[in-house]
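User: Some background: our group keeps a shared notebook of sequences we're curious about, and every so often someone picks one and asks for a predicted structure to add to the entry. Today it's my turn. The entry only has the sequence so far, pasted here. Could you supply the structure so I can complete it?
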Amino acid sequence: MHPFKLPPQILRLVLLTLAIVGSYLVARAFLTPPSFGQYGWYRGDALGLIASRPPVFAGKQACDECHSDILKKLAQDAHKTLSCEACHGVSRQHGDNPDIPPDKATGSHCIRCHEANPARPAWFKQIVVKDHYSGKCTECHMPHQPTQTP
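Assistant: Of course. Here's the predicted structure to add to the notebook entry:
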């Protein structure tokens, strides 16, 4: 007599579990890139791939070449730390070729930062959009100096 005998359904479950775990380990060995874990919990070759991509943001320096008057106004306002692309969108193409127009700020970008949010500090100017004017922000505020009226 056998001292220990498993019921057939338990034996099948154990074999199925071993087959699933074995399949996972074999697939992991073949599908994991060799550079995975080189610098942490990601693929090490991804750093070179990301660095090889061309930049998409132009930066304030590219805007200063043609729009220095606007940047001077902006430097005197609370928005002086913002990049032009925060409101106008990614402008690398416009910086390389001035004939391509940048995105025009319509006022909907203002809401991204100034819509009332309890997580923001109390000193930060916030509005409740439905209680504030529902049109474009630029109708009442100058985009590059919003504290002044047009």
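Suggested note for the entry: The longest helix spans residues 8-31. Residues 8-51 form one domain.
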